[in-house]
Design brief:
Its EC number is 2.7.7.77. It catalyses: Mo-molybdopterin + GTP + H(+) = Mo-molybdopterin guanine dinucleotide + diphosphate. It is a single chain. Helix content is 21%, strand content 24%. The protein has one domain: Spore Coat Polysaccharide Biosynthesis Protein SpsA, Chain A (Alpha-Beta Complex). Helix 2 links the parallel strand 4 and strand 5. By secondary structure, it is of the alpha/beta class. It has 5 helices and 9 strands; from the N terminus they run E-E-E-H-E-H-E-H-E-H-E-E-H-E.
């Protein structure tokens, strides 16, 4: 789609408990002088719908001017629960997710994922460490697959899209940095 707005709902997954970060809400942890949430939102700039998946600090997230979606349950069932909530609120035929704690994703991430999409499929990032399945662009029709997988007890992020047409998107090591612990913020 050249020259127009891409039909993509973006979602920042910021709903974790932050146990390894001392219980802090990672979205508001400072990285290079700003909260991680602002960095993640910048990656999704220009999309017609951007959601923040969060389970606490809801007023702070809403104050950023984006719709906030919450997990169905409040016991931190993992990132797939946040992705599920986002799929339910997505109003566009594609859903792109980024975790709030991966601040070095490329600035042109949306365009690069978009260029690799296949109808009915998913584009998943990977690094030398393996798949980075929370960085993905999925056809919204895969939401039904996610619901079925979840209903069957599945909670592994990679498990829900198994069998769907999958294209891989390679991240350089520096782009895949994940800030799980305070030492990772350097």
């Amino acid at each position: 789609m050249s020259g127009g707005v891409l039909p993509v709902t973006g979602v920042v997954l910021a709903g974790g408990a932050g146990r390894r970060m001392g219980g802090q809400d990672k979205g508001f942890v400072m990285w290079r002088g700003e909260p991680l949430i602002l960095n993640a939102l910048r990656r999704l700039a220009g999309l017609p719908q951007v959601l923040i998946s969060a389970n606490r600090s809801l007023a702070r997230y809403r104050a950023l001017g984006y719709e906030v979606v919450v997990d169905e349950r409040d016991d931190y069932q993992g990132p797939l629960a946040g992705l599920r909530a986002a799929f339910r609120q997505a109003s566009h035929p594609w859903v792109l997710s980024v975790p709030v704690d991966t601040p070095c994703l490329p600035a042109d991430l949306v365009a690069r994922l978009w260029d690799r999409r296949v109808p009915g499929g998913i584009v998943v990032a990977r690094s030398s460490r393996g798949p980075e399945p929370l960085v993905c662009l999925a056809d919204a029709s895969l939401g039904a697959r996610l619901e079925s997988y979840w209903g069957g007890g599945g909670r592994r992020v990679q498990g829900w899209f198994m069998g769907a047409p999958t294209t891989w998107f390679d991240l350089r090591e520096a782009e895949a940095i994940n800030c799980n612990e305070p030492a990772d913020l350097c």
